[in-house]
Amino acid sequence: MRLEDYWGIGPKTSERLTESLGTERAIEAIESADVRALVDAGLHRGRATRILRRANGEAGMDVLATGDTRSVYDDLLALAASRALTAHAADRIRVLTPLTDRGAVESRLDDVVAARDAWEALGDDERERVIEAFDAYDAAEGSDLATVETAVALREAGLTDAPFEAIGALDGERLRDAADALADVRGAIDPTGAGGDGEIEIARGADNELDRRREQLDAARDLANSAFDVLDAVRDGSLRDFEALEAATIDHVASETGVDPATVRSVAPDEALDAADFVSATLRDLVAELEETVAEREETLAADIRERIGAVRGESGEDERDGAGEGDGAGEGDGAGDGDGSDDGDDDTATPTGTVAGAVSAVSDAAFLLSLARFAVAFDLTRPTLVDDDVAVRNARNLFIDGEVQPVSYAVGTHSLAGDPGVSNTDAPPTGDRVSVLTGANSGGKTTLLETLCAVALLASMGLPVPAEEAEVGAFDRIVFHRRHASFNAGVLESTLKSVVPPLVADGRTLMLVDEFEAITEPGRAADLLNGLVTLTVERGALGVYVTHLADDLSPLPDVARIDGIFAEGLTNDLDLRVDYQPRFGTVGKSTPEFIVSRLVANATDRGVRAGFEHLAGAVGEEAVQRTLSDVEWSEGND
Known about the structure:
- The chain is α/β, with parallel strands linked by helices.
- The protein is about 50% helix and about 10% strand.
- Strands 6-7-8-4-9-10 form a 6-stranded mixed β-sheet, with helices on both faces.
- Strand 9 (about 560-570) and strand 10 (about 575-585) form a beta hairpin.
- Helix 5 crosses helix 18 (about 445-460).
- The protein is elongated, with a radius of gyration of 36 Å.
C-alpha cells in the first residue's frame, strides 16, 4: 500500500514522511495510530490526528454526519484526553472513532468499566504511586527502563486482573532484574539487539572498569589532538638524544592518561622520521588500542545485559511463557485485547509474556485504559445498555457545563426506562415515540439537552461510559446534530437543508437532533419545513428531537410524535432566570418574556430607560412582571 492511498496524505506529506521515517515505518505508524511518530516527522498534531482517525476508523467517522456532531465529538475526546496519564495515551484517545461492530463496542465497554472499577478500588497512596510511575515514564519518553519500572509499579499496585492481564502475566522477578540491567543502558535498546547485533550503549557509572578505560581513551584523544604541545612538554635541554625523548614521551603520556607505561611503549613506533612523528604516531596508535579495549569491555557488558534481558524478552523459547496468556492483543482501536487468556503453547505468533516487548505493549495499553478510567471516574460515567433503536437517559448531565448541573431524563424510541404503560414522569420518560418536539423558555436548556443526547450517543458508539444514571443507546449509522444558526440568509437555509436531509434519507439508522429551525427562515415557512422534517423522520424510521418555539403553528403531528416543554419558574434573588431544566412530557413549553423584561426593569438605573422597559412590561403583561418582581423582593426579605 502506498502512503498516498491513505486519507489526507498527498505527495508533499508522503515525501515528508518517507524522508523522516521511511515508507515502511510511516505505514506502520499510521496503521498503529502512532500520533507521536507523525508529529515527530513534522506533521501538525491536529492533522496527524485527523489522518489516523480516517485510517483506523473510516466507517465510524461516517456517524459524524454534521459539523456540529463533529464538534461535540472533538470536545468529548479533548475532555477525555485531559485525564490521560501519558502523552501517548492522550494521542490514542484523540484518535478513537465510533465503532461499527457491536461486539467491539461491548468489548471496549467491558475493559473501560473494569479499568474504572480497578482505579476506584485503589487507595489514594496507590493511585499516587501509579501516577508518579507514569509521569516518570512520560518524562523518559517511554524508554525501556521507564516501561519496565512502570510495569513493576502497576504490579505492586495490584493492577494484574482484567483488563490488565498482560501486566499480571509479566514475571515480577525478571522485570526487576531487567530494570537493574536497563539502568546500565543509556537511551533505548535497539529492538533487534536484544539477542542479535543491535547496539547497546552502556551508561557511565554502570561499570567501574569501563569508566576507567573510557577516561583513559578521552585523555589519549585530548593529547592526540595537541601532539605538538606534548612534544614541547617533553622536549627540554636535558634530553641528550632521541632515545631519551622517546622515554620521556612514554612517561608523560602514561602519566597524563593513566595508561600503564608498558602499554604505551607497546604501541610506540620502532622507527620514526623525527620527534614529532614519534609523538603523533604513539598517540594515534594508543587511541586505536584504547578504542579496542573500550569496545571489548562494552561488548562484554552488553552480552551480560543481553543475557539478563534476553530471559525477559522471551527469546529462549517456551519456558519464558510459563503460565502466560496469549498476550493482550491490544490495538489502537480497542485499547485492550479480546484474547481468552489461554495459551496452549502452540501459538508461535502470540506475544511472549514476561518480556520487555510485552511490557512495552502492556504498559501502553494500561495507560490508555486507566486514562479512560480516570475520565469515567472524574465525570461519574456509567455503562449504557446497548439496544437497537432508541436513546433514553435517566438523570443525564451535560459534560461541558462547569459547576452544579441539574440532571434530566429524556427519551425517544421504545425503551425500558419507562414506568407503567401510559404513565410518564421525570424518572420514566414516555416510550414508543419516534420524534419529540421540544419547546419552552429562552435559555431553558433545550440546546443543552440536544448536546447532551448527542454526547451520550457518541460516547456509547465509541464503547465509552456515558454521563447518566442509566441509559439505553441504539446503534446509529449517522448522528445529525444541528445547532441554531441565526440568519435569514437563503444560503444558510439551503446549506442547512443539504446537511440534514441527505443523512436522514440514507439507508440505516439516523438520530436527528435539530435546534430551532425557525432561526434560518421566516416563522411561517419554518413551521412548514419543520412539519416536513418531523413527518420525514417518522417515514424514514429515524429518531428525532426538534427544538422550536413554533409548536402552536405546527400541523397535527404523527401519532408517534409528541411535544414536550421546558418551563422557567421565575427569577432568583440575583435576577437570574430560574428554570426547571427537566422537560415536562406531552406539554407545550412557553417562552417567558415577562421574566426577561422583569430583570431589565429591576436592573435599569436610568429613569428613561426604566420607563421604556416598563412600557414593554405592559405589552407582555404588566401584572405578570409586577408579580415576578414582587416574588423576588419577597424572597430577598425571607433570606
